[in-house]
Amino acid sequence: MPSDHETIQNLYAGYCFAVDQGSAEDIAAFFWDECYLNFGGNIHQGVDEARTGFAKWIAKMRDPVQGLRHCLYTPLIEIDGDSAKAEAYYDADGHAGRKGKPIQLRGLYRSTLEKRDGEWRFIKHEVQIWDSIRDHTPISQEASA
């Protein structure tokens, strides 16, 4: 049987796969009914609002992207009984459907999770979307000397 730590890591991974390929319902299944979601500044209170927000995001932002994939890095998970705080950096990449232009985003997931009847889900989830590293000019060698 996996530890709570492993279960939360798997929850994050499952969430990423659902965001990349799943339906709004698939994504919403990772959240408790009374959740709070901040998805890049778009606030959703409760799983019904979150599901609606995910459906709009899928149609407008995700579906035009080909090959979307999220990768998580350095998850930090602190468990206290049936509550946990977790953070993980992410990268997301793919290709814009119309022009085929590469897309690369990065950011941070910051979450509070609760375990109920043996199941972990998000009660609070913040998706910080940072500027792509492709959008910046390289640091010159002079600046790093």
**SSE order:** HHEEHEEEEH
Q: Between the first and last Cα atoms, what is the distance in angstroms?
A: 51 Å
Helix share bin: 25-40%
Q: Given the C-alpha coordinates, what overall shape results?
A: globular
The order of strands across the largest sheet is 2-1-6-5-4-3
How many strands appear in the DSSP assignment?
6
Radius of gyration, Cα only, in angstroms? Answer: 17 Å
Our count of domains comes out at 1
Question: What is the top-level CATH class?
Answer: Alpha Beta
Mean pLDDT, to the nearest integer, reads 90
Oligomer: single chain
Number of helices: 4
**Secondary-structure class:** alpha+beta
CATH architecture grouping: Roll
Low-confidence stretches: 136-145
Descriptive key words:
145 residues; alpha+beta; Nuclear Transport Factor 2, Chain: A; six-stranded mixed sheet; 4 helices; disordered C terminus
How would you describe the overall organization of this protein?
It is built from 4 helices and 6 strands. The chain is α+β, with helices and mostly antiparallel strands. The chain has a single domain (4-144), classed as Nuclear Transport Factor 2, Chain: A. Strands 2-1-6-5-4-3 form a 6-stranded mixed beta sheet, with helices on one face. Strand 3 and strand 4 form a beta hairpin. The protein starts with a helix and ends with a helix. Mean pLDDT is 90; it is low at 136-145.
List the helices and strands and how they pair.
Blueprint: H1 4-21, H2 24-28, E1 31-39, E2 42-45, H3 47-62, E3 65-80, E4 83-96, E5 102-116, E6 119-130, H4 141-144
Parallel strand pairs: 1-6
Antiparallel strand pairs: 1-2, 3-4, 4-5, 5-6
